[in-house]
């Protein structure tokens, strides 16, 4: 009997060694192309002027921590979700609440607006992602039309519609991401590869094809092919959980924000990290990141209640914004780039411009 | 008991094999130099910076969040 086990252990050790060797080779290949730093190349770029960005609107109404928000394509509506189980749709111009839904669970960690503007998706500790069609009739009970789409075996951390209202991509505490058909609730593709909870995801801008990036508690950011379910690239340079990932507008790179208090930029064609956005004075984790329209600015929402604005090319901080009275938990730039919205554990959302 | 040990090892082995296959696939990728990647990122910024309302502000009357007038809805 003992002789049967020894070969298995040998194979495992052999595979682990092969794995380590391949990792070193990968690092070597990546290093060969590391001929210069982004901020060096960017020295010749004109510096950015002074920024005057302030809170232009404050959205009050949630009874507890705001956990997630998303913009509607109409550039004025916003959906937000909270620890108290409420999902609210706001008109950001007027600050009026247009719809409110109470979810059957607390900690609604994910919400997303459908591309048509006619529905919202949300989920959290219920391990599901549900879609609510938005009715023009304010008296209609939205909860009655709810459709359960995704089922995970742990909490839902993020969700996003793809190019249409018909498909949703989800990430979960169960370590997987999944693509679902909204109408039938069918699982179309699942994405396995993270070794721990997946906390965030972002779809590539439509021109660049069918890929998305995810970040997790295993400190890895993985890029996936949506059709095959294959992980095509993986980046592991953060020192702690990755809370947020966002594609650069051209689709050639993506930024990440982590509990290690840094944001980083990874270029997909160079296959490596090309910038780190950090300061010795910044010691709290980043919960959420997003780019301005041109990709020149990176906004980061931090656990120390602030928003740091970074010059993506030069690697320097251009501004720090104060206002929230607790952690910033979510941050998104509006579809036309005229403003960005933050949600916080202080129960409010703020629009900055 | 010995069977379950063998099963755990088999599971670890299949995981390790998958990791090796994944790494082999990633190793084959065509990569470009950082200088080229950086130049492309800069070119994109340069091409779009003038349309970026948070960098080159549009007149307050065109940015609904910056203008001072308040909207009222007719009930």
TrEMBL record, chain A:
Family annotation (InterPro entries): G-protein_beta_1-5, WD40/YVTN_repeat-like_dom_sf, WD40_G-protein_beta-like, WD40_PAC1, WD40_repeat_CS, WD40_repeat_dom_sf, WD40_rpt
Name of the protein in its database record: Guanine nucleotide binding protein (G protein), beta 5a
WD repeat residue intervals: 59-100, 149-190, 191-234, 235-276, 286-320, 321-353
Pfam families (alphabetical): WD40_Gbeta
Summary of subunit composition and partner proteins: May interact with RGS9; this interaction stabilizes both proteins and increases RGS9 GTPase-activating protein (GAP) activity, hence accelerating the deactivation of D(2) dopamine receptor-mediated signaling.
Coiled-coil stretches noted in the UniProt entry, renumbered to this chain: none
Keyword field: Repeat, Transducer, WD repeat
GO term, biological process aspect, one: heart contraction
Protein family membership: Belongs to the WD repeat G protein beta family.
From TrEMBL, chain B:
GO biological process entries: G protein-coupled receptor signaling pathway
Ranges of residues in domain G protein gamma: 9-75
Superkingdom of the source species: Eukaryota
Entry's Gene Ontology molecular function annotations: G-protein beta-subunit binding
Keyword line: Cell membrane, Lipoprotein, Membrane, Methylation, Prenylation, Transducer
InterPro entries, per database record: G-protein_gamma, G-protein_gamma-like_dom, GGL_sf
GO cellular component terms, A-Z: heterotrimeric G-protein complex
Protein localization: Cell membrane
Membrane-topology descriptor: Lipid-anchor
Principal cellular location given in the protein's record: membrane
Functional summary from the UniProt entry: Guanine nucleotide-binding proteins (G proteins) are involved as a modulator or transducer in various transmembrane signaling systems. The beta and gamma chains are required for the GTPase activity, for replacement of GDP by GTP, and for G protein-effector interaction.
Quaternary structure and partners: G proteins are composed of 3 units; alpha, beta and gamma.
Similarity-based family: Belongs to the G protein gamma family.
Record-given protein name: Guanine nucleotide-binding protein subunit gamma
Source organism (scientific name): Amphilophus citrinellus
């Amino acid at each position: 009997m003992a002789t049967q086990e020894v070969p298995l252990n040998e194979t495992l050790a052999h595979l682990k060694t092969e794995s380590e060797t391949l990792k070193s080779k990968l690092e070597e290949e990546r290093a060969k192309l590391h001929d210069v730093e982004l901020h060096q190349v960017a020295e010749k770029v004109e510096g950015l002027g002074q920024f005057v960005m302030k809170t232009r609107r404050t959205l009050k109404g949630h009874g507890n921590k705001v956990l997630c928000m998303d913009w509607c394509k109409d550039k004025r509506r916003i959906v937000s979700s909270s620890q108290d189980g409420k999902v609210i749709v706001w008109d950001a111009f007027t600050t009026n609440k247009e719809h409110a839904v109470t979810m059957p669970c607390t900690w609604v960690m994910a919400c997303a607006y459908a591309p048509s503007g006619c529905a919202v998706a949300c989920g959290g500790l219920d391990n599901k992602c549900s879609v609510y069609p938005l009715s023009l009739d304010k008296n209609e009970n939205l909860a009655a039309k709810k459709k359960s789409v995704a089922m995970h075996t742990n909490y839902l951390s993020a969700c996003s519609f793809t190019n249409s209202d018909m498909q949703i991509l989800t990430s979960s505490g169960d370590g997987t991401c999944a693509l679902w058909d909204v109408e039938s609730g069918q699982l179309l593709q699942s994405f396995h590869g993270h070794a721990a909870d997946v906390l965030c995801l972002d779809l590539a801008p439509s021109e660049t094809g069918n890929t998305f990036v995810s970040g997790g508690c295993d400190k890895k950011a993985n890029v996936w092919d949506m059709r095959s379910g294959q992980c095509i690239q993986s980046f592991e340079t953060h020192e702690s959980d990755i809370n947020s990932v966002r594609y650069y507008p051209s689709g050639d790179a993506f930024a990440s924000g982590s509990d290690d208090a840094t944001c980083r930029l990874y270029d997909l064609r160079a296959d490596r990290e090309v910038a780190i956005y950090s300061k010795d004075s910044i010691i709290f984790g980043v919960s959420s990141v997003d780019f301005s329209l041109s990709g020149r600015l990176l906004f980061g929402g931090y656990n120390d209640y602030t928003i740091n604005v970074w010059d993506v090319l030069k690697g320097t901080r251009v501004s720090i914004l104060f206002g929230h009275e607790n952690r910033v938990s979510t941050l998104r730039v509006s579809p036309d780039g005229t403003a960005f919205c933050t949600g916080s554990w202080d129960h409010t959302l703020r629009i900055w411009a | 008991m010995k069977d379950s040990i063998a099963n755990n090892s088999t599971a670890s082995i299949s995981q390790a094999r998958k990791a090796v296959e994944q790494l082999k696939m990633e190793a084959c990728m065509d990569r470009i130099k950082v200088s080229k990647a950086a130049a492309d990122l800069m070119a994109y910024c340069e091409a779009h910076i003038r349309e970026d309302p948070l960098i080159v502000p549009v007149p307050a009357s065109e940015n609904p969040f910056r203008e001072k007038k308040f909207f009222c809805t007719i009930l």
